[in-house]
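Sanity check

After download, print the first record. It should look like this:
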Amino acid sequence: MDRLDVEKASEEHFARIQRAALVLTGNPWDADDLAQEVFLMFAERYDRFEGRSSLYTWLYGILLNLVRRDRRRRGTFRQKLQVLWGNEFQKPTSTPAAETRIEVAEWKKSLWSYVAQLPDGQREALVLRFSEHLRYEEIAQAMDCPLGTVKSRIFHGLSTLRELLNRDGVDATEIPKFPCEDIRYAV
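Expected structure tokens:
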């Protein structure tokens, strides 16, 4: 793959990667940063792509690794602040702009805000499946795990999601009860 192909691939796949980053993070600014970082890494390491999966699946793998790294980094930072400030540490309070408050309120009402509460593996599998419409095999490649693990994470993710929605009195009838109801995407 030469430099021209890298630019073409970036043009073709940037929007998909950015959308997945948005759903994974829930924050448009973080999503933009992550999507840009994915393509910076891609530009530096495009020669590592071996073609064993589709290019966009490989790019999702890079995105997932960056999201995990970012979560670990933020968790470590928060722990350090708690040690420095004792148990009195709280998130900074500032009044967001009106449009930001509206976006946050809409996000909190969305199904994806519930997905964001799931454990990492389940959340990632559901985002790749239902937001990005990847087949189970593609999800397994992107997550670098066995197909059975993907099926298990989707099953348990849907189950936990249904419980969260029911707990809050939200209608969960749209969520499939069993992965076989999602069979059209399994192949």
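If your output differs, re-run the checksum step. Summary of this record's structure: Residues 55-85 form the longest helix (31 residues).
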